[in-house]
Amino acid sequence: MDRSNLTITTPTDREVVLTRVFDATAELVFKALTEPELLKRWYGPRGWEMVVCDIDLRVGGKWRIVSRKPGGKEIGQFGVYNEIVRPTRIVNSEAWEDWDAGETLVTTTLNEKDGKTIFKSTILFPSKETRDTVVKSGLEHGAAETYDRLAQLLANAKR
């Protein structure tokens, strides 16, 4: 799958890998992923709004976000940071408040080269069924719009 500079692959029965190049330093991308005031400005597809963003950015620290979809439905996600190597790597758990699908493990790497950053997020789902449900729910479209919004934020930050 390839949409709007985003590549999505499923290398194993339980994984989804999202890859995109951003025209920004790894430090700036890392900040956009971990600082609530920045994360609120880009997270989610167009029309979504983040209404809660709590981040305790340390190993063992918890995070929780709640996003509001157009129409008012709220979706909560939460997890714990397992590993943080600034500005190149974040490993965290993730689960949903309104869907008991089990916990995922998300490994995000940021590799900077010539002022651009290769963002790679590997999501390990608890089962093939959960992975397939997420993929079929519109992951490709939602992730592409979300990362387009991040790219715009990063471009504005460089000005």
Break the fold down into its secondary structure elements and pairings:
Elements: E1 2-3, E2 6-9, E3 15-22, H1 26-34, H2 36-42, E4 49-55, E5 62-68, E6 74-85, E7 89-96, E8 104-113, E9 116-124, H3 128-158
Helix pairs in contact: 1-2
Summarize the structure.
The chain is an alpha+beta fold and about 160 residues long.
Structural descriptors:
159 residues; alpha+beta; Alpha-D-Glucose-1,6-Bisphosphate, Chain A, domain 4; 3 helices; 30% helix
Explain the overall architecture:
By secondary structure, the chain is of the alpha+beta class. It has one domain (2-45, 82-158): START domain (Alpha-D-Glucose-1,6-Bisphosphate, Chain A, domain 4), CATH 3.30.530. 30% of the residues lie in helices and 42% in strands. It is built from three helices and nine strands. A hairpin with a 5-residue loop joins strand 2 and strand 3 (15-22).
Structural class category = alpha+beta
Can you say what the CATH homologous superfamily is?
START domain
At CATH level 3, the topology is Alpha-D-Glucose-1,6-Bisphosphate, Chain A, domain 4
How large a portion of the residues is in β-strands, by DSSP E?
A: 35-45%
Query: What gap, in angstroms, lies between the N and C termini?
Result: 32 Å
Biggest sheet: strands, sense, closure?
A: 9 strands, antiparallel
Which sequence of strands runs across the widest sheet? 1-2-3-9-8-7-6-5-4
Order of helices and strands: EEEHHEEEEEEH
- Overall CATH class: Alpha Beta
Count of DSSP strands:
9
**What's the gyration radius in Å?**
15 Å
Mean pLDDT: 94
Q: Give the total of domains.
A: 1
By DSSP (H or I, 4+ residues per run), the number of helices equals 3
Large-scale geometry: globular
- Which stretches of 5+ consecutive residues score pLDDT under 50? none
What is the CATH architecture annotation? 2-Layer Sandwich
**Approximate helicity band:** 25-40%
